[in-house]
Automatic annotation (TrEMBL), chain A:
The keyword Signal applies. It comes from OCS116 cluster bacterium. Pfam families: SBP_bac_1. GO terms for cellular component: periplasmic space. This is Sugar ABC transporter substrate-binding protein. Keywords: Signal. The keyword ATP-binding does not apply. InterPro entries: Bact_solute-bd_prot1, SBP.
UniProtKB/TrEMBL annotation, chain B:
It comes from the Bacteria. This is Sugar ABC transporter permease. Residues 71-261 form the ABC transmembrane type-1 domain. GO terms for cellular component: plasma membrane. Gene3D superfamilies: MetI-like. It comes from OCS116 cluster bacterium. Keywords: Cell membrane, Membrane, Transmembrane, Transmembrane helix, Transport. It is found in: Cell membrane. One of its GO terms (biological process) is transmembrane transport. The chain crosses the membrane at residues 12-33, 75-95, 107-130, 142-162, 183-208, 239-260. It is a multi-pass membrane protein.
């Protein structure tokens, strides 16, 4: 009797334990400020979803990309939600590595129609959404209105590169340590490799022609790179070839740059507590050359579900929460409206409170809407992506060719040498990958 | 009789040694210094040597991560793999040092050759094997992998130390009736203790700092301090001060261990160097 009671008790305890076992959703993410905020607010999700526990794996971008690629290619099932970029989504979706977010698309409460169309398009294949955008960005011109005024200039809403060149040289004051313009020169497909191809788009160039032939030997690339090298030489900070996003952010915050063409999300850093020029900031669209394309790029960090996961439903619940309108309100309540993840929902830009709190909001959404990932250049292209080509080979090519361009900025190579070498590298890689003969 | 060294040469060598030492230590010193700067100060140009120190980055790092969980995983994986490797390596090195065959050198070279292959070449096969056995993101899986990765170096080091021990001493113990395990435990190991200690310490350091496998084969459960460091690198925003603070916290335990055991390390590494 005693033994049977004990057995029944043990079985009941086990059954209770088993039913109380929560599903664990493991999320692989990079460590951007917005992701740190999401992690900090995750209690809100677990409270409303008591059956789901969250585990976070935070890695640097390159390690994360390598780590999740290994896992997803082998269907390892280590991650249930992956935070991936606009570059991976079309490639992985086409390979069947991502679960389509069909339920989310059809969920009225989620309101997928509210997603900014250019953002949703970049994350969809054959009309199916494969990743939900967490925040989106383009590029725009950040500038110091006090220095522009002091130089006797008026910044147009859509400046040309010619105007930017003149303004940069006029505002440069080496004695006071003010550089007319700061631009990225650090090699890497996500560093110089983001800014320069977007700039080339505005000069009428493209990465590949319709037959996948690299275009670095074309006159548009020469004109754009020569302009980039010259403007940094005449009006840029010393050592521009080693300046990336973080370095220029620090320079600008310390009052050493008059203009900076870079990510729209930089605006919150330039107006934040660390900035000495927060009250002097103004913004304009990314520059153009009058050909119909600006140097605006497009990027979005997204949440996606890998095909190997056993927790698809719980993962989808989490994604719905993290990319919902309610999440935006949650962040606004805790951190203020200026800090909400930007660029993904149309309704955010109809919210006057947000528009008042974030003076750069309208330009951000205008830039994102103008960036067309399917038609990034004046000429036709065979790839998706504005400042990159969404093919698996692009990271390798982008990293290698930007080393050549960075050398041209540093002055150790001529523009002609850098472009010729870039053309050789890209042609070799594209031939090896079977795109061209 | 020791050769007389002039004062000038002594001063010269001392200055050279200090210069090299300072050069080698500077990156670590700079990392530690950067951890006490603000994010803007961390990438200021020109670099700041004098500044008002702040613990802001350490506060952020501790708030954002479960440091102790990463430390425990590092201790278990580095310690476990090193001990397991010693258990396998000591008999292996003994057999090769005291009972060699004509293929012993080939075996030693073959073992070393496994270290010449880039790890990424075997990432997918190993990943699939661990997945099949349910060992992905487990401490057990990592202990086994790290043991196998460091085994060639451990066997080579122990083999070198064992070779310095006269085989006659082991033969004498056998004459006195010692069986094999007693010969190894009571005669060989005490004599080779400095060598074993330095092998253990060196491999503990190697396993602690290993990043490729610990990053690629773990997710949340078995993640070590290498993932802790990696998590503070950000593609956007400023992160160098937090990254430096995290790196200082990650190398702290192993630096303390190295500091206290430097005598054993040097003794072991120079064991048999003078004949």
């Amino acid at each position: 009797m005693k033994l049977s009671s004990m057995l029944i008790g043990a079985c009941s305890a086990f059954a209770l334990f088993a039913t109380a076992q929560a599903e664990t959703v493991t999320i692989a993410t990079v460590n951007n400020g917005d992701m740190v905020t999401m992690k900090g607010l995750a209690d809100d999700f677990t409270k409303s979803h008591p059956g789901i526990e969250l585990e976070w794996v935070v890695l640097d971008e390159n390690t994360l990309r390598q780590r999740v690629t290994t896992d997803i290619a082998t269907k390892g099932g280590q991650f249930d939600v992956m935070i991936i970029g606009a570059y991976e989504v079309p490639i992985w979706a086409n390979r069947g590595w991502l679960v389509p977010l069909t339920k989310l698309q059809e969920d009225e409460a989620y309101d997928a129609n509210d997603l900014v169309p250019s953002v949703a398009d970049a994350l969809s294949v054959d009309g199916k959404l494969y990743a939900a955008p967490f925040y989106a960005e383009s590029s725009m011109l950040h500038y110091r209105k006090d220095l522009v005024e002091a130089a006797g200039l008026t910044m147009p809403n859509a400046p040309t590169w010619e105007f930017i060149g003149e303004a940069a040289r006029k505002m440069t004051d080496r004695e006071k340590g003010i550089n007319g313009i700061c631009l990225r020169g650090l090699p890497g497909w996500g560093q110089l490799g983001a800014v320069l191809p977007a700039t080339v788009n505005s000069f009428g160039g493209r990465l590949f022609d319709e037959d996948w032939n690299p275009q670095f030997d074309q006159p548009e690339w020469h004109e754009a790179l020569q302009f980039y090298v010259d403007i940094l030489k005449d009006a840029g900070p010393a050592g521009s070839s080693s300046n990336g996003y973080a370095e220029i952010m620090a320079l600008f915050q310390q009052g050493k740059c008059a203009m900076w063409m870079d990510a729209t999300v930089a605006a919150s850093g330039l107006t934040g507590a660390d900035s000495t020029v927060a009250d002097k900031m103004a913004w304009a669209l990314a520059p153009n050359t009058g050909l119909g394309k600006t140097a605006g790029w497009f990027w979005t960090w997204t949440l996606a579900i890998p095909a190997g996961t056993a927790q698809q439903d719980a993962a989808a619940e989490f994604i719905a929460w993290a990319t919902s309108k309610e999440y935006t309100k949650l962040v606004a309540g805790v951190k203020g409206w200026a800090q909400v993840p930007p660029g993904t929902r149309t309704s955010l830009y109809e919210n006057q409170t947000y528009l008042d709190a974030a003076p750069f909001a309208q330009l951000t959404i205008d830039s994102i809407r103008a960036a067309d990932a399917n038609n990034p250049s004046v000429k036709p292209v065979p790839y998706t992506g504005v400042q990159f080509a969404a093919i698996p080979e692009w990271i390798g090519i982008g990293d290698s060719i930007t080393q050549q361009f960075s050398a041209a900025i540093a002055g150790t190579k001529t523009v002609e040498e850098a472009l010729a070498e870039a053309q050789n590298i890209a042609t070799r890689e594209m031939r090896a990958a079977g795109y061209i003969d | 009789m020791a050769r007389k060294v002039s004062i000038g040469r002594k001063v010269g060598f001392t200055a050279l040694a200090w210069t090299l030492g300072c050069l080698m230590f500077f990156p670590i010193f700079w990392m530690m210094l950067t951890g006490f700067k603000t994010e803007v100060g961390a990438i200021a140009s020109p670099p700041q040597f004098f500044f008002t120190p702040t613990l802001e980055s350490y506060k952020d790092v501790i708030e954002q991560s479960n440091y102790m969980r990463f430390v425990m995983n590092s201790i278990i994986i580095a310690g476990g793999s090193t001990l397991l490797a010693l258990v396998v390596a000591i008999p292996s090195a003994w057999s090769m040092a005291f009972s060699p065959t004509k293929h012993t050198k080939d075996v030693l070279m073959w073992m070393l050759s496994t270290k010449m292959m880039p790890p990424v070449g075997v990432l997918v096969p190993l990943y699939l094997m661990l997945q099949y056995f349910g060992l992905l993101d487990t401490r057990t899986g990592l202990v086994i992998i790290m043991m196998l990765i460091n085994l060639p170096i451990i066997i080579w080091m122990l083999f070198t130390y064992f070779k310095e021990i006269p085989s006659e001493i082991l033969e004498a113990s056998r004459m006195d009736g010692a069986v094999l395990w007693k010969e190894i435990v009571y005669v060989l190991l005490p004599m080779a203790l400095p060598g074993i200690a330095s092998t253990l310490l060196l491999n503990l350091i190697l396993a602690w700092n290993e990043s490729f496998w610990t990053l690629n084969l773990t997710a949340s459960n078995a993640a070590t301090l290498t993932q802790f460091i990696s998590s503070f690198s950000s593609p956007q925003g400023l992160f160098f001060a937090k990254l430096s603070a995290a790196s200082t916290m990650a190398i702290g335990p192993i630096m303390v261990l190295g500091w206290f055991s430097q005598k054993q390390l040097v003794t072991g590494l120079t064991f048999g160097a003078v004949k």
